[in-house]
Fold these 3 entries.
Entry 1:
Amino acid sequence: MGKPLGYAVGRVREAVEKMNDEYVRSALDYVGSLEDMDLLRDVFYNSGGGKGREPNLYVVGWTNFAYLETDFGWGKPLCLLPGNINSDGKAFLLDTATGDGFVVAVCLQASLIDHLNKLFYEDIENPASKL
């Protein structure tokens, strides 16, 4: 937490740029080679981790899903949300139903929300580095 929000944004951008076809195919090959998927499930769902043991914030962007164009027979969906966010530090960035903004779904202990707000808004008001 000693670095500004702009640093984190830069790191996210770098990671997104690495997500090319070769990287994804390599990851799929790795997953396909596993005999036991329990290890991946444990890592993804943070099973057994409980509350308060995860110091990281994982942000997943679902902003490119074309769910607003889907019609299930009763019209367009009102929203798209993950079915289960039960581990500290997971956040999902989603498009609004109108497509003009974002919704962020976060699983975080209530005692840490004030810290996250302070970090976020202080950095917006006084950025230490340009994005």
Entry 2:
Amino acid sequence: MKKKRQTPRPGPEPHTTEKHQLAPEVEMADHTMETFTVTYPARMPTEEQIQFGTLTAAHHKLVNESELIKSPFNPTRADVGELDQRVCITPHKAWYSMRKYVNFVMRAASPQHVYALISWLYWPEELPPPAKRSLDQVSPKGGKCQYHGAQELVASNYLDILDVLIFAGKADVVEWDEAGDYISAGERKYYWRQTFCRQTQALSKIREHCVCLGPCTPEIQMYICDNPDCKLWLHKICMLEYTLSEALKNLDPEVDTDAEILKKNHRANKPLYSGILAGKTEDKDDGPPKIIIHDLRREHKKSWQEWLKCPACKTKIE
């Protein structure tokens, strides 16, 4: 959602209780200055406690002064209702005395004072770092991962109350469920596929692809297996490594399994073909992708082409 930046928006913070200053002070109809604030009480009872009536007096007060906000984001790989939460909006009386609209979470004190309760989407680099650094984390100071795309946003359950007059326009942001055909980065606009939960300070799970069970990085092209019973999304590097590993087994003359280079590669945790074979993929508009393989052995130097194949079902990639 695009808006004119008048005050810094609240960012994710690793706290159990947060209080965000949400909207610039505005003059109400009676000429008093009002500022709305959303708080996330740490001792808020669960919905189960509310449903079964096991509440303390303090809990009753919190429930009476709070509102259950259903998240507009329903990610396919997050728990149902994970982003739903009870929040307190103050001043309570001023907020709930305003007229409520049905289609949006909006309230109005007058035609000149209309407010919207919104949920933020963040750029990945705006997120805080996880408690334990992950291998694909771009920087120790932020939550962006290597698989996050240039046009990718992360949905959250951080809330804000904004005067509708500060909105400059709208940005179309769609959920990408990573199902069906692969869409290249150039064909995709703003999108989100993960959520960031305020309570857990964690990203939702990312969908796993390929034989490596890695995520899709939109700026790096992927292929889809043509086998209708497979349809696996494949990383180019994984197909390249598979093809070179298979070519190593079929070399003529074959490589001695006791060769020192194989032992060195194994000890160094390198692919066994390292230093023996090298390959580069070749994509042409008028044909399927292929790999050019080079035999690096001094006495057997040669090059040839092979089809790229799905490592899972061995189907040629057309």
Entry 3:
Amino acid sequence: MMLKRAWPLLLIALVALQAFVRPDANILSVRDDSFHILRRISAGRESPWPAQTGFTRLMATEYQCGFPVRPDLLEPRLSEIISPLRWASERIYQGDLVDAAMANLSPWQVRLWQLRYGLGLWSGRLDDGPVSPQKVDEARRFAILYYQMRLRQVACDTARGMR
């Protein structure tokens, strides 16, 4: 009987303790959130790009639209689109890693980790990531392929409009 009356106070104490320890997480709203899953995947913190600079120059010779293209005329338009394309391909990469992680984890394991996060007991290194290196490479290849395809499409459409 005493536990029945103490239950609301224990819940309030738990939520208050959690708010001081981890204010950005809420134990009352734990859900399957891919952001929290992605936090513990070490590959998700990396960029899919082989190098941070010079990647667009590498592909400048690959524009093949079926007609001659002058990359120097396309440069102003491509410089506008490169940043959003890069952002989109990084989101695809991270999303693929989250999907691969979710496929390898049992639902109770995800809930347990989310509960630990909500309580402020998150160590940040529960494991080095449930995603195999092959899945990371596959996600990286797909992100770069997406970037190349969209960049080529924008380049060809721009060149077609300039003809």
